[in-house]
Amino acid sequence: MRFIAFLNDQDQPALGVRVGADALIDLGADGGPASLDELLRQGEAGMQAVRAAVERGIVRRPLAGLRYLPPVLNPGKALAIGLNYVDHAAESSFDPPKHPVVFQRYRSSWVAHGQPLVRPHVSTQFDYEAELVAVIGKAGRYIPREQALAHVAGYSLFNDGSIRDYQLRTNQWLLGKNFDDSGAFGPELVTADELPPGAKGLRLQCRLNGQTVQEANTRDMIFDVATLVSVCSQAMALEPGDLLITGTPSGVGMARKPQLWMQPGDVCEVEIERVGLLRNPIVDEG
């Protein structure tokens, strides 16, 4: 299934399941959950109710004109992984890491599909990073790697927009990775059963104004999804709705000669085959 979070006609968060290319079933209008956050907390019982609602297919609405929300509205944790492709580590002048490099992104730092990414007025070094997101569906701590994928509800897309000069002022990247509205998440959550295990073997691309600037395959990750779930769960319990933002490949603007930064008026697209396409325009702050 493909879940889409959106604003309904009453400007309230709602949750739908996409059917075909141009419509969705409004779960809330059929008595179902209003958010993926709520559904994931319900576990398998909630998913069974959703399957029944999809079979009934009573309340449908077109995707045209839909006001998207991020698939998960308020994740307890959004753990992002740095340097998770060998070629990106090399272009960033780092050796490939021997252990996942983990930092936090906060909810205020991203927008939904179609909403503008905001370049702050304190910097012009606004970079793109195309990434796969794994969304946790089943809680766990000290999860063995061989059981880790059973804890993943599904996958989505992320643009880990980065303010590079702020990111690199210190050894801690958090500030440059968390400017308000600098990243994007969406447009859908694709359940894990629709993709290869661990979403491995899928083509990943980033396009800026239609030009391909990043291209790789998810099989190229140094630490795959199962490893990331297992390792992160050693430090903290993973909960339904938590995000693992799995890292970007080479081709980022900072490493190019000349450097390439996102500018107001640009459009950035992140696409992973079978997962979807995340598109956002770029605007200046204020």
Characterization of this structure:
The chain is an alpha+beta fold and 286 residues long. It folds into two domains: 2-68, no CATH class; 78-284, Alpha-Beta Complex (Fumarylacetoacetate hydrolase, domain 2). The protein has helices spanning 36-56, 86-91, 164-167, 225-235, and strands at 2-7, 13-19, 23-26, 60-62, 67-68, 78-82, 101-104, 110-111, 117-119, 126-127, 130-136, 152-159, 162-163, 183-191, 203-208, 211-217, 243-245, 267-272, 276-284. The strands form three sheets. Strands 1, 2, 3, 4, 5, 6, 7, 8, 11, 12, 14 and 17 form a twelve-stranded mixed beta sheet that branches. Strands 9-19-18-15-16 form a five-stranded mixed beta sheet, with no helix packed on it. The relative contact order is 0.20. The mean pLDDT is 96. One of its GO terms (molecular function) is hydrolase activity.
Attribute tags:
single chain, 286 residues, alpha+beta, Fumarylacetoacetate hydrolase, domain 2, 2 domains, five-stranded mixed beta sheet, 19 strands, 33% strand, globular, hydrolase, FAH, Fumarylacetoacetase-like_C, metal-binding
Q: Can you give me a brief rundown of this structure?
A:
The chain has helices at 36-56, 86-91, 164-167, 225-235; strands spanning 2-7, 13-19, 23-26, 60-62, 67-68, 78-82, 101-104, 110-111, 117-119, 126-127, 130-136, 152-159, 162-163, 183-191, 203-208, 211-217, 243-245, 267-272, 276-284. By secondary structure, the chain is of the alpha+beta class.
